[in-house]
């Protein structure tokens, strides 16, 4: 097999859902030993195309060849058996099973009817070591942080003898060291002749790891690019149909005055000890830090979502938040990192999800017409792409689901402090711009914003001030208007300001 022989060819792929055409004659060609990036805005059709490849969906039209042979998997199990392994952005792990059980589910070594647990643990450990994971194979997956679950999903793909490995936003929850380990894994896989389809919205990752890229827009393939001779701006222009900077630095003057939120101390033994953190009305304060630095723990503590000692004041008065309900009554709103588990009711419509906070009733009792009327402005401002307000939110792309979570709080109103935990995880460049425009609009109305993100360039572009967390403590703060990004990055990694 030569370097130019096709490992995978998808031709004329069409997929229709009620009220929409998700894919309209898509073409995709992937070579052996290649990292082929699949790019496009949220809703462009990337995930649908990969679900067809995996066997989760059946195409309405089109053909697939795998190493020159017809390929038409009826189920994901059939796809895996044929050599297609998919690591989805929304992980398909079983939370109640151990890491080892997840990695070798259905493929564990056996002696007669009995699982050889020692051999299974050895194989699982080898797969985890390959992706740089240090947590035990006996850990229950549901107890692991999201970054560790992501590494588990990648390791699971390595235990299968896959010819094509699809990675859908693999770096969305990973820290820098974890991402470097994943890139080494990708390079070793392609060196063995395996093909990797890499989906990411981070242009720096695409340019570093990719060989070629296919760009999807509105359910169609609009171009194939050799990444050695293509710049990020050209790729972005192909994705959105126009050139231009999507997330620029704020030109608002830095807010002044007394703090709206003052955190004297937020403490969780062994995890968090943040002191003297202020946020003024209209101020966007970014929380930077490596994975495990305490950003999520801090936001959950302020929102009353975990047991913590929180000494804080809101507008000069003591803030007593004993539960999320108490936080909402006080004017706090949280957009959580895990939207599917904590932010949405996937079996209900877009409008019911976005209206539930505003109407204060169980979502199944919400009047449809009232919900649509209340939520329409926020959904439109955020650019939510759906076939209509009645579409199930679980059918939306991940980025559009995240927009619905924010729309829920905007529709409710009365927000005084907005807590954002990785709000752009899985969002394309255009969707990120929509979200940050809305965040700035809320800040312009006097809302205090705490923005936790692993995307330092987004923090420097959108935050008025950046607080660096390291091992649970806030160790430095910067004005991104005057501090170079490399100085902030140095502090994020080392925990010490130069």
Automatic annotation (TrEMBL):
<dbReference type="GO" id="GO:0016887">
    <property type="term" value="F:ATP hydrolysis activity"/>
</dbReference>
<dbReference type="InterPro" id="IPR027417">
    <property type="entry name" value="P-loop_NTPase"/>
</dbReference>
<keyword id="KW-0677">Repeat</keyword>
<dbReference type="InterPro" id="IPR050107">
    <property type="entry name" value="ABC_carbohydrate_import_ATPase"/>
</dbReference>
<feature type="domain" description="ABC transporter">
    <location>
        <begin position="8"/>
        <end position="243"/>
    </location>
</feature>
<keyword id="KW-1278">Translocase</keyword>
<keyword id="KW-0067">ATP-binding</keyword>
<keyword id="KW-0547">Nucleotide-binding</keyword>
<dbReference type="InterPro" id="IPR003593">
    <property type="entry name" value="AAA+_ATPase"/>
</dbReference>
<dbReference type="InterPro" id="IPR003439">
    <property type="entry name" value="ABC_transporter-like_ATP-bd"/>
</dbReference>
<dbReference type="GO" id="GO:0005886">
    <property type="term" value="C:plasma membrane"/>
</dbReference>
<feature type="domain" description="ABC transporter">
    <location>
        <begin position="255"/>
        <end position="496"/>
    </location>
</feature>
<dbReference type="GO" id="GO:0005524">
    <property type="term" value="F:ATP binding"/>
</dbReference>
<dbReference type="Pfam" id="PF00005">
    <property type="entry name" value="ABC_tran"/>
</dbReference>
<dbReference type="InterPro" id="IPR017871">
    <property type="entry name" value="ABC_transporter-like_CS"/>
</dbReference>
<protein>
    <submittedName>
        <fullName>Ribose transport system ATP-binding protein</fullName>
    </submittedName>
</protein>
<keyword id="KW-0472">Membrane</keyword>
<keyword id="KW-1003">Cell membrane</keyword>
<keyword id="KW-0813">Transport</keyword>
């Amino acid at each position: 097999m030569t370097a130019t022989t096709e490992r995978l060819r998808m031709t004329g792929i069409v997929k229709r859902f009620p009220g929409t055409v998700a894919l309209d004659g898509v073409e995709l060609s992937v070579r052996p030993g290649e990292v082929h990036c699949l790019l496009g805005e949220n809703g462009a059709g990337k995930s649908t195309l990969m679900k067809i490849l995996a066997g989760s969906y059946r195409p309405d039209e089109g053909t697939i060849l795998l190493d020159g042979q017809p390929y038409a998997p009826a189920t994901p199990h059939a796809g895996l058996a044929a050599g297609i392994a998919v690591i989805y952005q929304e992980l398909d792990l079983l939370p109640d099973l151990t890491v080892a059980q997840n990695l070798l589910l259905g493929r564990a070594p056996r002696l007669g009817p009995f699982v050889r647990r020692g051999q299974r643990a050895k194989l699982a450990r080898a797969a985890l070591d390959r992706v740089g994971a240090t947590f035990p194979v006996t850990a229950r997956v549901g107890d692991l942080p999201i970054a560790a679950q992501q590494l588990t999903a990648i390791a699971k793909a390595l235990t299968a003898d896959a010819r094509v490995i699809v990675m859908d936003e693999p770096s969305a929850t990973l820290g820098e060291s974890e991402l470097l380990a994943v890139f080494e894994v990708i390079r070793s896989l392609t060196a063995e002749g395996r093909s990797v389809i890499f989906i990411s919205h981070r242009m720096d990752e695409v340019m570093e790891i990719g060989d070629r890229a296919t760009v999807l827009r509105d359910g169609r393939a609009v171009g194939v690019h050799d990444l050695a001779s293509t710049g990020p701006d050209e790729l972005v222009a192909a994705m959105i149909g126009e050139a231009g900077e999507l997330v620029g630095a704020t030109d608002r003057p830095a807010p002044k005055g007394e703090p709206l939120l003052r955190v004297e101390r937020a403490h969780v033994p062994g995890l968090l000890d943040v002191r003297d953190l202020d946020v003024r009305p209209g101020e966007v304060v970014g929380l930077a830090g490596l994975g495990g630095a305490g950003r999520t723990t801090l936001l959950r503590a302020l929102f009353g979502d975990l047991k913590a000692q929180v000494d804080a004041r809101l507008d000069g008065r003591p803030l007593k938040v004993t539960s999320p309900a108490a936080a909402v009554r006080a004017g706090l709103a949280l957009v959580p990192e895990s939207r599917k588990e904590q932010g949405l009711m996937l079996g209900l419509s877009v409008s019911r999800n976005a209206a539930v906070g505003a109407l204060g009733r169980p979502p199944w009792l919400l009047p449809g017409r009232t919900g649509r009327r209340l939520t329409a402005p926020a959904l439109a401002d955020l650019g939510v792409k759906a076939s209509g307000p009645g579409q199930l939110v679980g059918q939306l792309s991940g980025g559009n689901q995240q927009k619905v979570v924010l729309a829920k709080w905007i529709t409710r109103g009365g927000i005084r402090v907005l807590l954002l935990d990785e709000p752009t995880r899985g969002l394309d460049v255009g969707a990120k711009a929509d979200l940050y425009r809305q965040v700035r609009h809320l800040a312009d109305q006097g809302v205090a914003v705490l923005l936790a993100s692993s995307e330092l360039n987004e923090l420097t572009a959108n935050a008025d001030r950046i607080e660096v967390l390291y091992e649970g403590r806030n160790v430095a703060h910067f004005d991104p208007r005057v501090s170079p990004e490399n100085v902030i990055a140095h502090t994020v990694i080392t925990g010490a300001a130069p």
